[in-house]
Amino acid sequence: MFTPTTHHPMAGSFASVDITPAISLTGDLPQGLPADILCVVGPDLAHHLLFTLASEKGLPQRKSIDVTACAEGEQGVHQIARNILLFTLALDSKITAEQAWNIYYDAWLTPSNLTALQTQAQKLFDLASSLDAWYAGPYSQLRFCDSGTLEFVKDVWSKYTTSEATENFDTILERSQKRKEETYGEEGQAVVTSSVRSCAPLSVGGLVEALTELTEENWQATVKKQDEKKPNPVFAAALAASDENQRRVLEYPTDPLVGFHLASANAPLTPLSPYRIENVDKKDIKDRIVETARMQWGDWLEAFREAVGEKRATVRFAAADFFSLCWTLKRNKDCGELEACWHRREVRFDILVLDEKEYAEGEAPNEFDVVDTGVLGDEKGVLNVLVAGLVLLKRVPSSTIYTECYAKDYEAILEGYTSAFSVLLGVSPGEYWTNSTSVAVVDEVLATFSERYADDERPRGIQSRLAWKWNSLQVKGQRDQLTMEARDLIMFFEGVFGRIFKAYESSQDNSKRRGPHHHFHFNTAAAILKVLCERLCLDFRRVLDSYETLPADFRAGTLEPHIKGWGICGVPEPSGNPAYTGDFLSGELALKLNKKLDSAAITFTVPAEKWKPVAQCSRDEGIPLPLKVTIPEAEIEYTNYQLAFGSITKFNSPDQDGVPGKVDEDKEEWSGSSDIVVSLYVPMEKFAGFQQSKQSVALCTADPFYNRLAYKTVLGNPQCEIHRVPIDSVLVTHVLPGQWLLENETVSVESATKKLGESEVTSSMTPWFTAKLDENAVDAKADVVLQIIGHIDITSDEGRSLLSDKSVPIKMEQVSPFTIEVVFGARKLVLPMIFTVPVSKEKCALRVARKSHYVEVVSSLVKPLDVPQLDTHILPSTAIQPSGIPATLNIPHLNLDNLPILSIDEDEDEDPRIKFLTTLTSLVFSGRERRLREEVNAQDDNYTGLGPSPRLNFKESLFTIFMLSSGLQGGQTGLFAISDPKNGGIHMLLFVNAIRLDCPHATVVLDAAILPFTKALVDSKELEGFLLLIRTLECCTITVDDEELKMWKKALPAFVERCRTWEHNPKTCEYVTASGEKGQKTVPLSLKEGEQVICSCGQGKLPSDFIPLPEWDETAAMYSTRVAISPVYASQLVEDIIDPALARGLAGGGEKRVAGCRACGKVEDEEEGVALKKCGRCLKVRYCSGECQKRDWRKHRMECEEAEEHHRK
User: Fold this and answer.
1) Could you report the per-residue pLDDT of 805-850, keeping only the tens digit for each?
2) I need a labelling partner for 21 at 20 to 30 A (CA). Which of 6, 795, 861, 983 fits?
3) Burial zone of 654 (CB within 10 Å; 0-12 exposed, 13-18 middle, 19+ buried)
């Protein structure tokens, strides 16, 4: 396997639901374009897929949405079978949404629902006689990546049709209840956190508490026997075990409600809002939660039925390890082959072979727009899933890899070197460099500071869903042409993985070794190095040869012997005919083989009587069983093994030298009584030269903690050896059982050079870039260990003349976060260097080679807050070349018409449910930005509201727009003018139609129309009458400076594209027809005063009666475009999004959540002497001091209306 394996002889557990609310898998892709998606199957697949298709309704129709879903292991097969059962029931339309809910989610079924389930299961079983038979049936849009997957799920469906699996169901549920109590107690942290996510952005007013109670009620109803109902065979089959010692359990929670978006259940909604509950005031909050989830479920099923029924959506399933599938698909993409010698899963020797009709003759995708790895990164390592997904990611700006992890420290995400790996792999999270996201985690952050947790029990962080995108494609005009010296790459590789693999070295202090969640072994490292070589246009073999150039003291203990000669596909690369048959190993044979190949496979068996006591201990203690193979005499250990249960029956004939024979496998695996067959690759030099009587191989338990806890006592030896095998009982072959030799797949030096395009670079004076190891940083164990060198060869006569003239000064000028210009003299020659990641001039050095005719800019890697130019880089978009269609980079797409509409007509004193908006929108200011606001306020008595930071000013403007649109801080208006008094006055008008709940992203969004003024439009005088009318209305003027105005213009394409319901016209769209420098399409179109910012394709394409103003439909609407504007938060990868002290105050309850100073945000605190006083005129807005009130008057004066109390007698 690609990563170390942790076994679970107790057979683990079955999760019937996921604790993550549904997300859209196409949320980062432009509307209307085909979408190929790869994702990991879990209990959340149905939610995510159904919600994705529901989110697409009403948007420009995609030609296809093709989803490939993979799942590993026995429980993965059960999840596939269960999902197909649900999908086919939905397609047949013979049952109601309520029946589908019960069959999919309930552990106990009524007789009628049980009959419907078993009838459908029998139908599926009958159709699954072969792939051809299945595809000839009614469910051909549900497909399989290989025939083995169909066989696995067919076996599960057969269990659904009988009652055998339901035996001992009561006992299993009793055991599940006991496990739940041991793990979570009465209310588990995971449940509270998931409830907050499901209720966001409205996790106040008792919603979370009600959902938590419903979750517990659902669990008790599940584990309690219901005499009038029968066990659900879907649950029973997944929990059944042939061995009574396999103590399988049902995972807590089982409540499906946590997978839905429930904020609308407790929000005041308008009469025509989606998901509005009738007679809401007469219903209990729990009933409203259930009704909200059921409404969404019905809509999602209908959307699935339409999309799949019309053959616009296809779902493919693979019962295989995620990494095995990725590398197999990569080989299919690279050379058309159907296999890559990767074993299907961790406990088997069968190889994953793709279906020929799908992947050789058919249209099954082998590269993807989206790779969603779910929570696999926490289990297998984010670096591993990122590398595996990267090799299948399309080279398009919108292409995205999703990972989920607890990401408090950015560098820790990728083993302490995230910045460096981001450069070398060419991807980074969209929110990192922009330090901005419209996905709120406000509710989760506040929940961690609530009274639910003691200080020592708070969650260790917030689970982040990161969207990784190509670096070079995010930057206009940039090409992906980074390379690196082979020696530098090896030094970096050893610096990272050498540190990791010290855990594998033999040590007297066993406590220093890594535990079972260690994410790497030697094969992992070899594959990652191979991917880096391909990304950097380096020949893999020559990179390995560069080990010879390293100092002798450095080479000692390197990974060279373990990775040398390995290919990315998990088998050694051919190195001539090894000329040997499968034979027992000896020192003499190892010495002979070491001269012919670097690595070979060894295979040995572990008798059942040796491993069974350890497996039983694992079951009794309820702990995992991580294993390793050791070579005691060589003082080395390996976790990159493959095992199966059974015996080796024969070896192949001598004309198939080094290829292992067949292994008769026992399907009962840990439940059976067969021997374990263990096979792995090792360097032959580890055996060569040893005396045969002193050589051995051993299978051991791997984790020090579990060894001390249990295994050491059972095994009775300090090494925790399960079984040691003398060398003459070890078989040696070229490859592992089931594998065969693949053709050499390394990238040649010639092809790498061609890929880099050096001749083109040289002739056009285009820069090319090299990653350089900063050896000083390595020595200092710094996080950032790379430099990027931009190099330009001066080939023109003019350039060489200027270069040779020493009187001509040459300097650097930074013109954007990514661009450094090398300027000759008074701009006689300007050479731009566009880096793929932001750089800072202050951390760059200029090298000028006047005789050798080149210039170089050497940049150290920087952090987002180190680059002042990134202050305005907040919501960028880029054009997909050559079409010109914009792609948003860090703001998800929405279907506005599906989102609930908040009612803002309620009296805030009577309906506190709307007050959450104040906290939600005010927290767009990070802790650092709040301090900056206070500093600016304190230093300037004549503060105008415009500070030194354009980003801070932009957020101030957004906050003002949200507050005035909602009416929470005084007057209310939906009309805003963005005005730069020093540069032309009003540049655009914003008309707010509604504030909608964006529950999937835990925030709110303004449904609005934008009317940008161009010189041509103003000169036409078509809007003259409408503008005169505007002057008589309550319009809030948002005063901006030139830098903030540019930020608005840069953000407009993202605001438009994310909610687009129309198609770009390729003949008239300005994004398509207009070209910038070097023919590149540009987004936005222009930042210059009076020029067009966004294309005209969306003008006038608004819902009817969108804005209730006179002359709106006749004039203004024709030039207005619909936009979706969300609060923009700082990224927790970059800085603290909220000060802990403020979080504690806000988490205390409803009043504290809104009782903040209107100017600086301070909360009332008696101990600190902070008292808030109301504005004496409106009696609504509060301030901590007269100074704050004075500074805020510019914004407050237009909303401040005299309170009625002043007129009462």
Assistant:
1) 999 999 999 999 999 999 999 999 999 999 999 999 999 999 999 9
2) 6
3) exposed
